[in-house]
Design brief:
293 residues, alpha/beta, TIM Barrel, six-stranded parallel beta sheet, three-stranded parallel beta sheet, 12 helices
Length: 293
């Protein structure tokens, strides 16, 4: 499939639903040295990846932005995340500049448990950050770390959504899984969390959390794909629950770091049993449009 053919295929899916385009809440844009290291990690099937993982959209930054625009993606994120202290503030500065030069990107920021986290998170919020990224697996930190108390309070008060990788896939971490998130929400019940990857592989547990916490949402990133179903399939016994969460599920792709084509990720969602066009309209566009105004 050529690039033009793929763009046409993507557009055909959302246009058939009567949508003006789509919103992808889980895309990655990073400083080039960081992105190069991320790609190298995937190429080497590092321990947090656990298996061969080819990158389908290994293109320059401008080309990747243009690809999303040709797909009809009207809003996307630049999910940056640190793996060590004294990295998040620099990533936030880069992401803020990227958003200023890329108006269809939702201004993105991140954080790490460190003494200065509250200060740079407050700066990011004042600067117009629309979404935060937290990566519990890569960062290897407890979301309930005392160094994050100010951070979560600021984010909760500002009602800025947080895309949070907290499930134990593709490889479990010391602080991944539903229980740390349950504890976090008991302390900050108004947090607008977007649980990445549908909470893979603890899908059912994160559906339960979403059911009880009205401000918690899930993104579809990589879930329901043959690549993930080989090792961490969504349980068929819980597929019937998806329609009831129709307004709390958002489309995410993990672009560009996906081992298949973007159009396929969309198509597999359209083939889920029990979902209808209204559900798909919400997932591909309307739910995120409502959340991000």
């Amino acid at each position: 499939m050529t690039d033009n053919d793929e763009a046409s295929g993507v557009r055909q899916i959302w246009s058939a639903l009567g949508l003006p385009g789509m919103i992808d809440v889980h895309t990655h844009f990073m400083p080039k040295p960081v992105m190069d290291k991320v790609w190298h990690y995937f190429d080497s099937a590092g321990p947090l990846v656990g298996r061969p993982w080819p990158i389908s959209y290994r293109d320059g930054e401008a080309h990747r932005v243009q690809t999303l625009r040709e797909f009809g993606v009207r809003g996307f994120t630049a999910l940056v995340y640190p793996h060590k202290p004294q990295m998040a503030a620099w990533l936030n500065q880069w992401a803020a500049e990227f958003a200023r030069s890329t108006p269809d990107c939702l201004a993105t920021a991140t954080f790490y448990p460190e003494p200065e986290a509250g200060d740079y998170v407050e700066t990011a919020i004042r600067g117009g950050t629309r979404v935060f990224k937290a990566h519990i697996q890569v960062g290897r930190y407890d979301p309930n770390d005392p160094l994050l108390e100010d951070v979560w309070g600021l984010i909760e008060d500002a009602q800025v959504p947080v895309v949070i990788h907290c499930g134990s896939g593709p490889v479990a971490g010391e602080h991944t899984g539903p229980e740390p998130i349950r504890r976090l929400l008991r302390r900050y019940p108004r947090l607008r969390l977007i649980v990445a990857h549908m909470g893979m592989p603890e899908y059912a547990e994160f559906l339960d959390i979403c059911e009880r916490a009205v401000d918690v949402r899930l993104d579809t990133t990589m879930a329901f794909t043959p690549f993930i179903d080989e090792v961490m399939p969504f349980p068929t016994t819980h597929l019937h629950r998806l329609p009831q969460f129709g307004d709390h599920i958002l489309f995410g792709s993990d672009f560009p770091n996906i081992p298949y084509r973007y159009a396929d990720a969309m198509r597999w969602l359209t083939e889920l049993p029990g979902v209808d066009d209204e559900w798909l309209r919400g997932v591909f566009y309307q739910n995120a449009a409502m959340l991000f105004r």
